[in-house]
Amino acid sequence: MTWESTISIIRLITWDGRSEEVYGAVLPPFRKQVFITTKANSRTRAGADAELDLSLKRLRTDYVDLWQIHAVGEKTEVEQIFGPGGAMEAFEAAKGAGKCRFIGFTGHHDPYVHLEMLKPYDKFDSILMPLNIADPGYLSFENLTLPAAGQRGMGIQGMKNFANGKLLQSFSVRECLSYVLSLPGSVLI
User: DSSP secondary-structure letter at 90?
Assistant: First the structure.
């Protein structure tokens, strides 16, 4: 199974971790057939390590397929993530130890912050970003971040395809999805 050929993706994290426990109760017999992704909110190595260890325990598995640095929104966070003792150290160590197969990051608000994440590190496997029919009009992930991610061959995950439902006031579900599916990408969340 590779990132490019994987069809089933399950997002497994909630703020209280309850969904990881629920999946962990039934997942073990099916582990090899399920692509699991989870996220870390911490910007430090120690914090990210702790979050991954807890997720693995709850999920009753020894690895996740994709581990993501979650919700990077400020340039100061990028400095923390890549600085001494930053979360990137945990991500690289986890990948080297086989605790995750792929690493990526997510963000919701600023494509320029995504571009800052790509500058110091050229080994990200995936990116999760807003992509929708209104995106080209303001702080455009489509125009700024999508080309950079595509040039690197990253797995591109599009989210907020309906802009939290606001786009459905002006566009149909079909129009929204058709637009996003016309863009380069791997999966819609």
Answer: H
Q: Is the pLDDT assigned to residue 14 strictly greater than 80? A: no
DSSP 8-state assignment for residue 147:
H
| DSSP secondary structure letter of residue 44 | B
Helix (H, G, I), strand (E, B) or coil at 26: helix
Q: Show the tokens assigned to 140.
A: 């455009």
CA distances from 159 to 57, 115, 163, 173 (A): 27, 17, 8, 14
Closest CA to 62 of 84, 23, 103, 31: 31
Instruction: Give the Cα separation of 106 and 116 in Å (integer).
Output: 13
What is 1-106's CATH number?
3.20.20.100
Cα gap 23→88, rounded to integer Å: 27
Q: Any idea where the domains of the chain sit in the sequence? A: 1-106, 125-189
111 half-sphere exposure, CB direction, 13 A CA radius: 18
Counting beta carbons within 10 angstroms of the beta carbon of residue 97, is it exposed (0 to 12), middle (13 to 18) or buried (19 or more)? exposed
pLDDT, tens digit (0-9, with 9 covering 90-100), for 87-130? 999 999 999 999 999 999 999 999 999 999 999 899 999 999 99
Prediction pTM value: 0.89
Name every residue whose Cβ is closer than 8 Å to that of residue 110 and which is 6 or more positions away in sequence. 73, 74, 139
